[in-house]
Amino acid sequence: MENLKIPSGYVSALDLHDTQVAIKTVKDFFQGMLSTRLNLQRVTAPLFVTPESGLNDNLNGVERPVSFDILHQDGRNAEIVHSLAKWKRYALKKYGFNVGEGLYTDMNAVRRDEVPDNIHSIFVDQWDWEKVITKEDRNEEFLKETVRNVYKVLRKTEKFMSIQYDYIEEILPEEIFFITTQELEEMFPEYTPKEREYYISKAKGAVCIMKIGDLLPSGERHDGRAPDYDDWELNADIIVYYPVLDIALELSSMGIRVDENSLKSQLKKAGCEERAQLPFQKAILDKELPYTIGGGIGQSRICMFFLRKAHIGEVQCSIWPEDMVKEAVSNGIQIL
């Protein structure tokens, strides 16, 4: 099982019953702190959208959404969301949110092309959040301050869990380290992007990697980003070092969203200028939607991190390759 990593001597500190209690403890505390820190209100959100709306997240542009036809709507097609990155911005306007106010929601997705391993599942659950900002807020310092606020919530959650459970020690550093993808490439030119993330996160404990999606001077991208939600000059990933698996673990992806200018530029760079005619994208170009900042925070990822689990299947229910399940169970990893 090349996709399964077994930590030496791993034993879960909690049984299945107590793990369920701990999962709720993490989620209740974290989302309460997040909503207060960022001034967010919880809203309901769709599980599926229509393809022609342009609201689904295209991720890297190659992942296939799960789609189905609706019997009593003349066979109309719908797609399970990959994320709510675009829908949230539309909702902020429709629900009447003002500058400085935002929303968050539970987002459940099915990503059937995901390669399953210790931290990846075909089932994705995250808190999707979005907040109305001004045109003047579209700058790097505003992005950094928002990252710091999210990171403070992560640190407070770790401190809270360390009080609730004796086996959990605080490992997050006091401050998060900021670095751009170009600076990271210059620092580790001989390594792949994922290897760079590992070395910088292990050295710093927690890092914010900025400016993801565009081509680097080397002619390669650090990682893929859809061209029609994050501004590639104003986005960021929060990544921490996770000693249980000795890996870099991404907990959150976020960014200031495209305005009319960056959307037009990024659609051209991505070779998909035809998307400008879709309702959502056209509304941005016509300045009908608010300027926003937003992101996604993996619910199972943070539960896995704070509970010091070795496999994401220990904190969420999904479908895994049978040989992976057998190997995990034989090594003390309790897959739900």
Keywords:
alpha+beta; about 325 residues; 11 strands; about 35% helix; eight-stranded mixed β-sheet
Structure description:
- It is a single chain.
- The relative contact order is 0.18.
- Strands 1-5-6-11-10-9-8-7 form an 8-stranded mixed β-sheet. It has a 3-stranded antiparallel β-sheet with strand order 2-4-3, with no helix packed on it.
- It contains 9 helices and 11 strands.
- The chain is an alpha+beta fold and 336 residues long.
- β3 (67-70) and β4 (76-80) form a beta hairpin.
The percent of residues in helical segments reads: 25-40%
Distance between the termini: 19 Å
Low-confidence segments, ≥5 residues, pLDDT <50? Answer: none
With strands numbered from the N-terminus, the spatial order across the biggest sheet is: 1-5-6-11-10-9-8-7
How would the global form be characterised? globular
Which value, in Å, is the CA radius of gyration? 20 Å
Number of strands: 11
Helical segment tally? 9
Average of per-residue pLDDT values? 92
